[in-house]
Specification:
Family: Belongs to the UPF0178 family.
CATH topology: Rossmann fold
InterPro entries: UPF0178 (IPR003791)
Structural class: alpha/beta
Number of domains: 1
Strand content: 15-25%
Region (Disordered): 112-139
Organism: Paenibacillus cisolokensis
Order of helices and strands: EHEEHEHEEHH
Biased composition (Basic residues): 114-127
CATH architecture: 3-Layer(aba) Sandwich
Shape: globular
Largest sheet: 6 strands, mixed
Number of helices: 5
Distance between the termini: 18 Å
């Protein structure tokens, strides 16, 4: 993969902004790879490759980790996957538009661990709130910003 031409790799199982990703990828001429389990229906379209993997709980993550290279952009809401792709030199972006980085990922992983402990002991935690149109616009603006920065940094 050439350093100037990233791929947008999407953890697509529960991603609510697939249409925004496809549209933005097409606008920038950047290929999009959506990865999901066979349990989810993804419709192929121009500029978007689709890979479907086994139903195993980590199959999508393992495929993405094996595929991602430095400079790619990964869209995921999975903090563990985000931490791994950051270590590989990829950009990690949540489907809410949060750019994960080395400063924030440790805190997010700790918080996830604490919430899992609370749930195992019978406690409750809040799930993510519903996506709004404003959330979708915010995500698309962040993805556009990341792609513009990649474009500027790859020019001679």
């Amino acid at each position: 993969m050439k350093p100037g031409k990233p791929t947008i790799v999407v953890d697509a199982d529960a991603c609510p902004v697939k249409a925004e990703i496809a549209r933005t990828g097409k606008q920038f001429g950047v290929p999009v790879l959506m990865v999901s389990s066979y349990d989810h229906l993804l419709v192929p379209e121009e500029g978007v490759d689709i890979v479907q993997v086994d139903r195993h709980s980590q199959a999508v993550d393992l495929y993405i980790v094996s595929r991602v290279v430095r400079g790619d952009i990964v869209v995921t809401q999975d903090f563990g996957l985000a931490a791994i792709v950051l270590a590989k030199g990829a950009v990690a972006l949540s489907n809410q538009g949060q750019i994960y980085d080395d400063r924030t990922i440790g805190y997010l992983l700790d918080r996830r661990h604490e919430q899992a402990k609370r749930r195992r002991s019978g406690g409750r935690t809040k799930g993510p709130r519903a996506m709004t149109e404003e959330d979708r616009r915010h995500f698309q603006q962040k993805l556009t910003k990341v792609l513009l920065e990649r474009q500027e940094n790859s020019e001679p």
